[in-house]
């Protein structure tokens, strides 16, 4: 039983139904709608566990940033504006210096996005565990979901993909000299893992414009597969179109290997979305409003008769044999 079987079996079937839940389990965030309110609330939560989501020696400031950033990324994927955060911390020890640095990293990113920390919980426990719950607002009916991608849509991503996976690999194997890239490129890749940039401005610019969106946390192909499944469509990604950074290309030393990292690596926190046909020509304008480059990397097709929906990758028309599962806990 992996994490998704577990959620379906034990939690998705709980049967309290409330009329103010507009969107429940199954997307990057949940949406609630209060009678008479102008805006919907978008709620997300994400946990980081030492040794699972980050190496135990990760700098405290980076963890403060990252704990909020991964939640901002889910809010961005819903096209919402972040507002309020709750922080639950489980600490093996209370080291004031560590805590100051952690709080500093959190506060800097919270300040950038005008997020107020309004509560939380602090406990001692054997493993450093950080959970942030973030609440945002979205204008009624423009929230972005994983559903709604349609055959003929273009599939696009923000930024560059695969950098964080390379950065994590470098952090886990110090001695970048061995990999043939210079220290500056290695540092840049490591920063992409340690300090992800949630695409909050982009998410809000895309809301109301694009058909479906998800943030890339568990790997591009796996997350494309989730979007395809939620929308009941097929997605084909063209590996040669993937935006790979110069640093990633230098690290792998080979374009096809960089593409593999981009398809299967995790922790990018970029946005993947699908655009209706009439907007295909407007990608540059959209990228300007998003304040981040956008690259068209694939297309949406109807599901073949009798087959299940999903994502796959091709290179110059030939299918690539890759796992679409993405990262799964308990697998
Ligand atoms: P993400 O990768 O964006 O964090 P996931 O794909 O991991 O989202 O989660 C799938 C869905 O399951 C999400 O809507 C999430 O809110 C929900 N979910 C995860 N764990 C639980 C749980 N223990 N109880 C209820 N819902 C859960
Ligand atoms: Mg997500």
Q: Would you kindly provide a written description of the structure presented here, covering whatever features stand out?
A:
The protein is about 35% helix and about 25% strand. The protein has about 325 residues and is α+β, with helices and mostly antiparallel strands. Helix 2 (about 60-75) packs parallel to helix 6 and helix 4 (about 165-170) packs across helix 5. About 45% of the residues are buried. The model has no long low-confidence stretch (mean pLDDT about 95). Bound molecules: adenosine-5'-diphosphate and magnesium ion. Magnesium ion binds next to helix 2. Adenosine-5'-diphosphate binds near residues 25, 46 and 218.
Topology:
Layout: H1 3-11, E1 21-23, E2 30-32, E3 39-49, H2 60-77, E4 81-91, H3 96-112, E5 116-124, E6 129-139, E7 154-158, H4 163-172, H5 183-194, H6 200-206, E8 212-215, H7 220-231, E9 234-238, H8 246-252, H9 255-264, E10 271-275, H10 283-290, E11 294-301, E12 310-315, E13 318-319
Parallel strand pairs: 4-5, 9-12
Antiparallel strand pairs: 1-2, 2-3, 3-6, 4-6, 7-10, 7-11, 8-10, 9-11, 12-13
Bound molecules: adenosine-5'-diphosphate and magnesium ion.
The site of adenosine-5'-diphosphate has 10 residues, from helix 1.
Compressed to H and E, one letter per element, the order equals HEEEHEHEEEHHHEHEHHEHEEE
Count of separate DSSP helical elements: 10
What gap, in angstroms, lies between the N and C termini?
7 Å
Strand content: 25-35%
